Amino acid sequence: MSAVVKTRALTKAFKNHTAVDSLDLHVPQGVIYGFLGPNGSGKSTTMKMLLGLTRPTSGEIELFGQPLTPASRTKLLPSIGSMIEAPPGYGHLSGAENLRIVQDMLDLPPAQVERALATVRLRAHKDKLVRNYSLGMKQRLGIAMALARDPSLLVLDEPTNGLDPAGIEEIRDLLVALAGEGITVMVSSHLLDEIDKMANVIGILANGKLIFQGAREQLFAHSIPDLIIETPDPAAALREGITATQEPDGLRVTGLDKDQAAELIYRLATARVPIHQVRRVQQSLEDVFMDLTGRAGLL
User: Does domain 3-220 have CATH number 3.40.50.720?
Assistant: First the structure.
């Protein structure tokens, strides 16, 4: 698939630390790209560089197949909608008035702005003051402002930050619907489970470095799920010299691939250890992240 966003050795260094270190991003067209990492890992800084808000120390950025330069910036950025950090909007104005400012600044057709408002399901609240919006409504207004220019790429930094489960689900459903309409969505989050429910492609950033990039299936292939051996006599199994921890229904064994698991089960069966069931523990994206980063964890 052609790349909407591509970077080569993208780096941003500050006086005391390197926030982004030699990043090679590849965001294919028409996907939801989940950009993951702990707070402070460099996600926001990367997105600001992609939007021309922060100048890289070194490296290259390519958008829609063209290099992002001071000369090309005004041509490329109108095709990108974005919401970075806090959702925008003047609290003393209504949602419709905030969008009218965007419309006037960008010289957009009124129908285009109305369509953005309808897409985020805020039509019924467009005349309400933004200071009286819920956090979820403010996030949706921010996304509407990003959509007003009818972008090909949507860049969102933590769009579900601070939302309750219902608000998170609402934003997730909206982003999935937008991707279904052909908009490429790049969304950052430290909520791994949420990204797991919507992203086609995942990039994981830690300490400014890209430690994984690819499809969800490729990510899960990096980690071996634990093995649960259900037995009424775990002591008998442990006497066979296996390394395991006891569970309520048996033993948990870590780090065994398929062949090693088969060998272990054969060994226990030969020793007449009673085995009721053998199963793999279902892993979440967070489990795999922890394994991949040496259990560095998320903040």
Answer: no
